[in-house]
DNA sequence: ACTAAAATGTGTTTTTTAACACTATTTTTA
DNA sequence: TAAAAATAGTGTTAAAAAACACATTTTAGT
């Protein structure tokens, strides 16, 4: 099995994946009834206003979900890691998309179209509960985020974003470099601040020995201090 | 049938209520297997940190869902109207509550306990889809709200909150008075601003003829202008 | 009805952060 | 590989909104 095939396979079998909740029969059905899409860095998966077509499951890569707000300023509202779900919120709410999804690195996606998805939910209550669990977790994240983005000061917001990126994508082998590479602008859009302030505050953290920077690489040097900044503001 | 009984009955039959998706048999089951709770203004339904016990359906009244943030400043993240669901997000995410729910006026709630709820979902995929639809709608609201609360300026945020209250609770018989009475502090907590600024900005809107104020009564005098303030900032 | 407490309202000061203007560096691409 | 474009970085100014300090009014409890 090639590397690509192995990754693809895990999307159907990993217990982290929603698809692992399918019956053998359903699993088989989906294997023969889905679309597989490949995206390069900066490619658009869907955009604000589009009609949702189905459930997107990220097999490999990283995706940002954001909404354009006042004066072309984007707010990143979610970040997707492998086995994460996308494009289903609008579908289930019977709305058009209110956010856009863009690959931040090369990504592979499995798409299950609306009709098939509803069939799976109808047949399999465990699968339905998996969807419910995912939406509930997302809603919790969004509500927590609303509070911190509105109430914490710049340093607290940035520290929290760095911790969020660590929790979502983890470290590289060295156990301290964030396993995700974002532009300063994306970091700003995640943290509700201007790009200038993201740059400035990252530099301040580096100066204080909390993190260290080298291009887009961010290393957490003092996790405790970072937590404190995130919590205390 | 008394007024109370009629309200209660509608919760099981109104097509706006999730319970209308139940089969006759299930409907009957729930009628005999639920708790009915009554709350006075300012009573706590559940609070941040509590273990979720079941699905709360608001039969009558109004409830605010909020989270205490930095320095005891609350952020209201949802407002519930009759037939609205509460307390189910944490339950489905297998978490403790991350928000608190407090009645803003006398309220009646129907509680379906976790076991029964899971049984209903297992048996009835339409009901499951109803839950999914509700979570998806809430998530959309939360994501939109995150963007406006972080990006709009005070006037835009307050205007949007007033429109939100109108959309949620509607007008009184006069067709222009908001059918909900909030303290200035609650309005501030809904709009991410200090109480002083909520008071000041409400006065400014009244001065400009956009709204008129009389105690906790808010009348929309110029909906078009209000929309413009909300949209343009 | 009377008092204490809570909520509302207003002016001033201070803090935070965006906006702006620009340089330097890195990355694309022609 | 040189030019152009995009990204990163820095200092300064301006705007927005919080914090603070009170006065006034309304509400709740005895």
Characterize this entry briefly.
With 233 residues, chain A is of the alpha+beta class.
Folded structure, characterized:
2 copies of one chain form a homodimer. Chain A is 47% helix and 21% strand. The first copy, chain A, is of the alpha+beta class. The first copy, chain A, has 2 domains: 147 residues, Jelly Rolls; 81 residues, Winged helix-like DNA-binding domain superfamily/Winged helix DNA-binding domain (Arc Repressor Mutant, subunit A), CATH 1.10.10. In chain A, the strands form 3 sheets. In chain A, strands 1-8-3-6 form a 4-stranded antiparallel sheet. A 4-stranded antiparallel sheet of chain A has the order 2-7-4-5. In chain A, strands 9-10 form a two-stranded antiparallel sheet. In chain A, strand 9 and strand 10 form a beta hairpin. Chain A is globular and about 55 Å long. Chain A starts with a helix and ends with a helix. The mean pLDDT of chain A is 96. At the A-B interface, helix 3, helix 4 and helix 5 of A face helix 3, helix 4 and helix 5 of B. Chain A binds a DNA duplex (30 and 30 nucleotides) through helix 8.
* Number of alpha- plus pi-helical segments of chain A: 9
How many beta-strand segments of chain A?
10
Work out the oligomeric state of the chains in this entry: homodimer
Q: Round the Cα radius of gyration of chain A to an integer and report it.
A: 19 Å
Mass-distribution shape of chain A:
globular
Q: How much of the sequence of chain A is in beta strands? A: 15-25%
Structural class of chain A: alpha+beta
Query: Within the CATH hierarchy, at the fold level, what is the topology of the largest domain in chain A?
Result: Jelly Rolls
- State the share of residues found in helices of chain A, binned by percent: 40-55%
CATH class of the largest domain in chain A: Mainly Beta
Unreliable runs of chain A: none
Order of helices and strands of chain A: HHEEEEEEHEEHHHHHEEH
Mean pLDDT of chain A: 96
CATH architecture of the largest domain in chain A: Sandwich
| CATH homologous superfamily annotation of the largest domain in chain A | Jelly Rolls
Roughly how many Å apart are the termini of chain A?
A: 49 Å
Largest sheet of chain A: 4 strands, antiparallel
Q: Provide the number of structural domains of chain A.
A: 2
The largest contact between protein chains, plus residue counts on each side, is: A-B, 47 and 47 residues
């Amino acid at each position: 099995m090639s590397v690509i095939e192995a990754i693809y396979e895990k999307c159907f079998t990993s217990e982290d994946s929603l698809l692992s909740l399918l019956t053998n029969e359903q699993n088989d059905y989906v294997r023969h009834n889905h679309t597989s899409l490949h995206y390069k860095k900066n490619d658009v998966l869907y955009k604000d206003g589009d009609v949702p077509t189905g459930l997107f499951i990220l097999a490999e890569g990283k995706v940002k979900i954001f909404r354009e707000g006042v004066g072309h300023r984007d707010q990143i509202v979610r970040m997707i890691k492998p086995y994460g779900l996308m494009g289903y919120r609008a579908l289930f709410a019977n709305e058009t998309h209110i956010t856009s999804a863009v690959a931040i690195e090369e990504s592979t996606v499995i798409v299950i179209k609306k009709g098939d998805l509803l069939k799976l939910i109808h047949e399999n209550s465990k699968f339905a509960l998996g969807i419910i669990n995912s939406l509930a977790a997302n809603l919790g994240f969004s509500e927590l985020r609303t509070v911190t983005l509105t109430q914490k000061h710049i340093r607290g917001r940035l520290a929290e974003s760095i911790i969020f990126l660590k929790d979502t994508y983890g470290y590289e082998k060295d156990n301290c470099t964030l396993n995700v590479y974002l532009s300063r602008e994306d970091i700003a859009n995640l943290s509700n601040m201007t790009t200038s302030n993201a740059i400035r505050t990252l530099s301040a953290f580096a100066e204080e020995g909390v993190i260290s920077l080298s291009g887009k690489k961010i290393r957490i040097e003092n996790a405790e201090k970072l937590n404190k900044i995130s919590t205390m503001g």
